[in-house]
Structure formats: C-alpha cells, structure tokens
Fold this sequence. Notes:
Helix content is 44%, strand content 16%. By secondary structure, the chain is an alpha/beta fold.
Amino acid sequence: MNPRTKRAVLVGMASAMAVALTGCSSSWIEPDNDAAGKASARQNQDLKIGVLMPEKETARYEKFDYPHIKKEVEDLTSGKGRVLYANAEQNAKRQERQVDQMIADRVDVLILDAVNSKSIAGSVKRAKDAGIPVIAYDRLAEGPVDGYVSFDSDQVGHVQGMALLKALGTKASKNSRIVMMNGSVTDPNAALYKDGALAELKDQVTISKSYDTVDWKPENARANMAAAIQAVGAQNIAGVYSANDGMAGGVIAALKAAGVTDLPPVTGQDAELAAVQRIVTGEQYMTVYKPYPEEASTAAQMAVLIAQQRDIEFNALTKDRVDSPTTPDVPSLLVQVVPLTRSSIKSTVVKDGIYKVGDICTAKYAAACAAAGLTK
C-alpha cells in the first residue's frame, strides 16, 4: 500500500499552513503561555538533531535541504543546537548503519529521508526504542515515525501531467504516444507521482512505454529511453513524462543520441539548475518547483518542538494526516508545489532566491536568456 493523504484535511489546511510557514524562522509558532512558560519551554536548547539524507545524485539534498535545516535549527535554539549530518549516497544498508550511529551519538531527534522506505522500518523502531523521535522527511519511512513533512506528491504528478498535456496542445489525443520515466520503486513518492500523472494522461494520450527507473539515476533513465526509442521510434514519441530533472537530462541525452533535433516536451521535478537552463533553451519543457526552504524549515521546527516536548505547538504545525503501510495517521505537513516553465523562472526560483539570474544565465545561455527576458 502506498502512503495516502487524508485529502479532506489536506485541502483546507496544507495551503493555509504553507502560507503561515513562509519566511522560515520568522514563522516560529510561539506557545500560548505566559512569559514564564515561554522561558521554561526554551531552557533545553542545547539539542542534538540528527539529519540523514538519501543520496547526492539529486543536487537539492546537499545544496538546499541540509543547509536550510542546519541554519533553522541554529536559529531556533539561539545557536545552541547542533546538527549531526550524514548522506547515505543511495545505499540503504549504509543508511541503516548511520541510524545506528545516530542512536549511539544519543541525538535528541532524527530527521530521516529514507533511501528505502520499507527496509528502514527496523532502524526507525530501534531509534524509537532508544527514546529518539523520528521525523520522516520528504519520503514517508515505514515504522513508528512521529511526524512527516514533504510536498504533496500526488499534486506533483497532477501538475506534471497537466503541463505535458498543455505542451501537446491540439496534438493531445489517443494517437499521441507518451513515454513515462517514473522514479525508483524504493521511494514511495514515486508511485504517487506516477498515479497523479496517470490520472491526467491515461484518458487523453497513449502510454507506449513506462519504466520504473532504478535509483532515480540519469544513466538508467537514458538507457530506458534508448530502449523506448528503439521500440516506439523516435519520430513517434509525442512527449516524455520524466518524474524528476536528473532523469529528464538522461532522457534528453538519449533523444539527442538518436538524432532527434526537434525535441518533444519533457517534464521534470526539483528545479535543478541544469534543468532550469534546459528550460531556458527549450530542451526541457517544465519542472516542478518545490520550495525547499519551507520544507526544511518545517522539519527543523518539528524536530525542535518534539525534542522540547512542546506538544500543543507540534500538533498545531502538523494538521495533515498521512498513512504509511505500517503507521496510520502520521502527524504531517504537506507543502504545495508549482509548475516552472520558461515564462515563470523569474516568479519562482529567482524570486525565492534559489538562483540568481547570473547563476542561470552563464555565457553559454546568454542568448537564450535574453530571448526569455532574463536579465541581471
């Protein structure tokens, strides 16, 4: 069973909480107590927060997620809180050992982005047995997690599917043959992305080939796409659903290697710099922009609140509820996402300070940037 959101809760609360959380540390929820109570609640600020990220293939984890969590913990604890960090580099067994090390280091709470959401369940239980709460981050780990923060994964798939149909325009019909490049089966979000996209695509176009890409690796996506081109014919592929930007790069490389010069629309996710640059040049049609500072800020707040046993505030922050295959009604917050196309680069990643125009518009992309209206 895939994790499913309690949609009645999500629709009203996730967007409201997303607005309330904008501004990172300025969103900190003050306890509804008197001044003495507030001071008492903050006495234990010398916390140790463990943070475990899953891989480095996707640039966001090292570039955005970890640094934002670290800074937010420091801000929320007046510089007294420490973050212990490790990245499993797509190795599930290594991540299990990293959890054991965090337990040995006696962290107060663990923020965990699982390599394999199913196999990590035993490690989550060991942490729980050691009295260490676990906040599942970005991917819903199985086992007795205490909280979960992520983006609305079903919404991501819907956004991608709708964008692909928009790119096809009048060409969108059952005669339009689509290749689906889905994520890794070890990531529960991948199934939700796929389901959301299929809800938009299945009655509008024909899915000629669909792949679950091992470890989300671009080279595996490229090999899958080469196989799809061989089976379907490059000239017959109207569009490609790619679940993330790294794989979109592999898909585009395979199309170019097959001699395709007029590239079909290709989707993505994560707003990686290389993907944004491909969008500027028209090689990639869109990506899904996920406001990482908001997700990371929320995770840090959840960790500090639960470590300080500030249950009322923790519950106020986690208004959504999500079921995992092992744990029902996990207190959660799901952050909303937006599509990023050539026309919305300024209003998304540039406006939010993820990239400067100069980061995107290097000499190689100067002409395309000028045509897109991206100026320093």
